[in-house]
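Subgroup meeting minutes
Present: P.N., E.W., G.H.
Scribe: E.W.

1. P.N. recapped why we're keeping a running log of single-chain structure predictions: easier to compare across weeks, and new members can see raw inputs and outputs side by side.
2. G.H. added today's entry (355 aa).
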Amino acid sequence: MLLDDAWCAFFKEHDFLIGLSIDGPKELHDKYRYYKDGSGSHEKVVAALRLLQKHGVRVNSLTCVNRLTGDHGREVYRFLRDECGFEHMQFIPIVEKRDFETVAPHVKNPGEEDPREDLLKVTPWTCKPEQWGRFLSAVFDEWVRRDVGKVFIQQFEQSLACFMGLPASLCVYSKKCGRALAIEHDGSLYSCDHFVYDEYKLGKIQDKTMRQMVESDAQKKFGNNKFDTLPRYCRQCEFLHMCYGECPKNRFIKTPDGEEGLNYLCKGLKIYFAHVAPMMNMMAREIAQGRPAEGVMHAIQAAERIALASGKAAPAAEPEAAPAPTPPGVLRRNPRPNDPCPCGSGKKYKKCHGR
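Output recorded in log:
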C-alpha cells in the first residue's frame, strides 16, 4: 500500500516479480484487511496495483480464501481477471488454529450451529474445508472454459503436472518438503516459514553456512516427515499422488477411524481433485499428443453446442463421456474420421482430435 513511483521504477529496472495481496472486490477484501480505525485497505491496494502496471512491473495476485470469500470463487476470479488484469494468480486457504490456552475448546464459533470438531479447532475466519474445494472448483469451471493458456493459476498448474505424471514443484503438494526455509532478521534459519518455532531452528548464518543447515540431518528429517508421518487413511486415498497430505501445518484433525494427522482441508481437496479430474486428464492427453492444453476449451464449447441443440444439459465431465443423439445439422459427438472435428478447428476429425 506504500508503493510509489520510485519503488516501482526500482522494481522494473531490476526485474522484480511482485506478489500483491488482494482478496477480491472491495466488500470482500475489506472484511479482514482493514486499518485500526476500521476503514478498509482496498482502495490503496488497487492504487498500488495501477502504479505497478504503469511502470510495467511483473505482478501476481496473492488472494487469501477465508470464511467469507470461500463462497465467492467465481466473483473473486472475475474481479482479479477483468478488473485488475492479473494473468498469474495464487489462492491461499486461511487455516488458523485457535489458541486453546485462552479459548476453551467447547466454545462455538460465532454463527456456527452444532459445529463439527474440525471447525472447533480453528478461528471463525478460517476457510471451511468444503469451501476451499468449492472455491477452487468454481474458479476452475470459469477458467477451463475461456482462460486456459491466458491466465495461470498456481493450483491448476500443480494439478496438471500431477495428471501428466510430473512431480509437483509446490512444496505443499510434493511428496517431500524442506526447501522453503525462512530466515529471520537476527540470522536464524528455520525449517519452514510455517514453522518458525524454537524446535525447528537450524542455527544462525553467523555460525554455520546456509548449505550446512539446509543439508543437515535435522532438515532432511523435516522434509521426509511430510510423507513418513501420513496416516493410513491418506496412504490409501485415491488422490494421494495429488497432495501427499498437503501442508503439515494443517494436519491437526483425526481420520474417520480416529488416527491423528489428517489435513484439515482434506474434504475440500477431495472435492476439488474429483471435480477437475476429467478436464485435467483431457489437457494432459492434449499435451502428451503434442497439442496445446487450450484444446480443452474448444472441446467443451463443442460439447455444449451439441448439448444445447439436443435439448440436454452440457456435460460436467469430459465431452466424450456421455454420447447423445445427433440432431440434423449438428456435429456428431462421436465423429467419423472424415467428419469436421467438433473442436471447431475446420480440420477433419482424423487430422485433429481423432489422432
